[in-house]
Write a structure and sequence with these properties.
Pathway: Lipid metabolism; fatty acid biosynthesis. Its EC number is 2.3.1.180. It catalyses: malonyl-[ACP] + acetyl-CoA + H(+) = 3-oxobutanoyl-[ACP] + CO2 + CoA. With about 350 residues, the chain is an alpha+beta fold. The chain has one domain: Thiolase/Chalcone synthase (Peroxisomal Thiolase, Chain A, domain 1, 3-Layer(aba) Sandwich), CATH 3.40.47. About 30% of the residues lie in helices and about 20% in strands. It contains ten helices and 13 strands. The chain has helices at about 30-35, 40-50, 60-75, 100-110, 125-140, 165, 230-255, 270-280, 290-295, 300-310; strands at about 15-20, 25-30, 50-55, 85-90, 115-120, 145-155, 170-180, 185-195, 205, 230, 265, 320-330, 330-340. The strands form three sheets. The chain has a nine-stranded mixed β-sheet, with helices on both faces. Strand 12 and strand 13 (about 330-340) form a beta hairpin. The two termini are about 25 Å apart. About 50% of the residues are buried. The structure holds oxa(dethia)-CoA. Oxa(dethia)-CoA (UT7) binds near residues 47, 165, 168 and 328. Oxa(dethia)-CoA (UT7) binds near residues 270 and 328.
Length: about 350
């Protein structure tokens, strides 16, 4: 059943012209981590599917990774920096705490002097949230015609490298999509965004914000809780249910079944989460695009990195439907339905 005539956003298409990504040079294998931590390649692979991750240099921030990916996407699309009128950047690891936004830093790096630029916070769902914000702004008025939607993260700077239950899971990277009104490019057919703030403390960085600022003079014995803390099992259970909910709701409201999709691109957090969704929904694993083995969980960057790799694989044909599924801290969850375009790269 493929009845996209009923798609929710037929009237005013916004399209993705190109994807690009960048990851830091340094690769850290599971074996390397096992050299300094009570863990093993066997545990990490069997519990997560992760084999290695890319880790930023000491002086590399989210904007540095975003800049490399954004330059590539501009080059791919033959678009000049001055033509960009909107930059929406999703990150949980901004260059600075509070302000300036990483999007403004990126705007200056790229020379996008005509762009409105701002950050959004939706953790690992951030890229899909950002895509929907940019798309809505483009649909709403004539001021925005070319947008960069960015997911950029350096989680290596906010994880406790002594905590084996979190540090093995994350990697650094950035992915970017360039949106335009080119209807022969990849169409954003539908998006679905959800939030559940009751789960805020299941995945968080407890201190350093206005709720619990770092206090000068606090005893050294009371180390600030400035790193990622997670109830892994609770997040796992939420992730499986949230992905199933988004998958079924988007398919149903667009009159589609799984068989109509070419690929499902899930947030790359844990291969076991993806396998659980596949099993419960009776979807063959080959339909899921995965690269978690090479990059680990790059949070807001994970879906655009996967889309950029899928785009470069040459495996997509014009008209193919791709469903992206995200979930993350907040808690947040989201999905976006794309139709691959003949002029997309
Ligand atoms: O973008 C969203 C981000 N977060 C997620 O998606 C995370 C969702 N949750 C998960 O992916 C899984 O819950 C984890 C991968 C985090 C953990 O897997 P699990 O199968 O739920 O393991 P567990 O937390 O129940 O721990 C099992 C054992 C524990 O040892 P004991 O108490 O049974 O002796 C842990 O201490 O595994 C131990 N363990 C480790 N052992 C070796 C935890 N981390 C490690 C490690 N190496 N890195």
């Amino acid at each position: 059943m493929n009845s996209l005539a009923g798609s929710r956003n037929d009237a005013r298409h916004v399209a993705i012209k190109s994807f690009a990504y960048h990851v830091p040079e340094r690769v850290v294998s599971n074996q390397e981590l096992a050299g300094s931590l009570d863990t093993s390649d066997e545990w990490i692979v069997s519990h997560t599917g992760i084999r290695q991750r890319h880790i930023a240099a000491r002086d590399q921030a989210s904007s540095d990774l975003a800049c490399r990916a954004a330059r590539q996407v501009l080059q791919n699309s033959d678009v000049a920096a001055e033509e960009i009128d909107l930059i929406v950047l999703a990150t949980a690891t901004p260059d600075y705490n509070g302000f300036p936004s990483t999007a403004c830093v990126l705007q200056d790096m790229l020379g996008c002097r005509n762009a409105v630029a701002f950050d959004i916070t939706a953790a690992c769902s951030g890229f899909i949230y950002g895509l929907e914000i940019a798309r809505s702004m483009m649909i709403a008025g004539p001021d925005y015609n070319k947008a960069l939607v960015v997911g950029a993260e350096v989680f290596s700077k906010i994880i406790n490298w002594q905590d084996r239950s979190t540090c093995v899971l994350f990697g650094d990277g950035a992915g970017v999509a360039l949106l335009s009104r080119d209807s022969s490019a990849t169409l954003v057919l539908d998006s679905l965004l959800k939030s559940d703030g009751k789960g805020a403390e299941k995945l968080w960085v407890p201190e350093g914000g206005s709720r619990a600022p770092f206090c000068p003079g606090r005893s050294q014995a009371m180390a600030p809780r400035k790193y990622v803390e997670m109830d892994g099992r609770a997040v796992y259970n939420f992730a499986v249910a949230a992905n199933q909910e988004i998958l079924n709701e988007i398919l149903e409201r667009n009159g589609l079944t799984v068989a109509d999709l070419r690929y499902i691109v899930p947030h790359q957090a844990n291969l076991r989460i993806i396998q659980a969704i596949a099993k419960r929904e009776k979807i063959p694993m080959e339909m899921f695009f995965t690269n978690i083995d090479r990059y680990a969980n790059t949070s807001a960057a994970s879906i655009p990195i996967a889309l950029a790799e899928l785009a470069a694989s040459g495996d997509l044909r014009a008209g193919d439907l791709i469903l992206c599924l995200g979930f993350g801290a907040g808690l947040t969850y989201a999905g976006v339905l794309l139709q691959w375009g003949k002029s997309s790269q």
